[in-house]
Design brief:
- This protein is mostly helical.
- Helix 3 runs antiparallel to helix 4.
- The longest helix is centred in the middle third of the chain and has 70 residues.
Length: 129
């Protein structure tokens, strides 16, 4: 029964392949010592297993991202809409302020110039302080 298990076991098959490869290399290159590729093959198998685990982790991450994306996309669209409305509102507010400023400047030029000079002084005081 153990011979059946060894025959079906990929690790056992890999070690048999390694032995055959080592023998074939030694026969192909006489005078060179027998090469022991088992450590290299074991290391490569470990790396393949690590890459498989990494691939599984990345697949789970991609699935989680795909599940969250539609919700975040809707949220982003709502935020962009809110910011666009805010921009329009601010544009309207500042255009009304400019209109009032122009109106008061033409209606009361002396008072407007006086207030403007006070405002400039306040700005200078803030820079000094």
């Amino acid at each position: 029964m153990s011979t059946d298990t060894a025959a079906n076991d990929p690790a056992a098959e890999g070690s048999q392949t390694t032995t055959r490869t080592n023998t074939a290399l030694s026969a192909a290159m006489p005078g060179l010592p027998a090469l022991d590729l088992s450590k290299t093959l074991d290391s490569q198998r470990e790396q393949v297993e690590i890459y498989r685990q990494l691939l599984e982790i990345l697949a789970h991450s991609e699935q989680a991202s795909a599940a969250i994306f539609p919700e975040l996309s809707k949220s982003l669209v709502a935020h962009i809409d809110t910011l666009s409305k805010l921009k329009e509102d601010l544009h309207g507010v500042f255009s009304r302020i400019r209109a009032l400023k122009t109106h008061y400047q033409s209606e009361y030029p002396d008072a407007f110039d006086y207030v403007q000079s006070l405002h400039v002084k306040e700005l200078d005081d803030e820079d000094d302080g």
